[in-house]
Specification:
- The protein is of the alpha+beta class.
- It has a domain at about 5-30 and about 40-85.
- The protein has helices at about 40-55, 60-65, 75-85, and strands at about 5, 10-15, 20-30, 65-75.
- The strands form two sheets. A two-stranded antiparallel sheet has the order 1-2.
- It is elongated, with a radius of gyration of 21 Å.
- About 5% of the residues are buried.
- The model has no long low-confidence stretch (mean pLDDT about 80).
């Protein structure tokens, strides 16, 4: 039997007795050009991107361009997530050292 746990509160979810919510998030990098560019501008942009690719770590670069994530949520955490999916009103916490 497959065991599930909530990715938010870590509580075990009994999938035979309660609903398990799957939240999928897809993140894509994009750049929208404000004005049309001529063919020469595109070639310069491609050349600059290729130069950066040679210097960058491929794994890190691919994560910056595209990510597809999936999370399991229990019913209580789903209700909280549904109210505020971007955590816009989450309190900001600071971890100060014990000086």
């Amino acid at each position: 039997m497959i065991h599930y746990s909530c990715d938010r509160c870590q509580r075990r979810i009994d999938s035979l007795e309660e609903i398990r919510y799957i939240v999928r998030i897809e993140i894509q990098a994009t750049i929208d050009s404000a004005e049309p560019a001529d063919e020469g501008d595109h070639l310069m942009e491609i050349e600059e991107i290729l130069e950066r690719l040679e210097e960058a770590d491929c794994q890190e670069l691919s994560e910056d361009v595209y990510q597809n994530r999936q999370f399991d949520l229990c019913p209580q955490c789903y209700q909280e997530y549904k109210k505020n999916p971007l955590a816009l009103d989450a309190p900001v916490t600071f971890d100060f050292s014990q000086n």
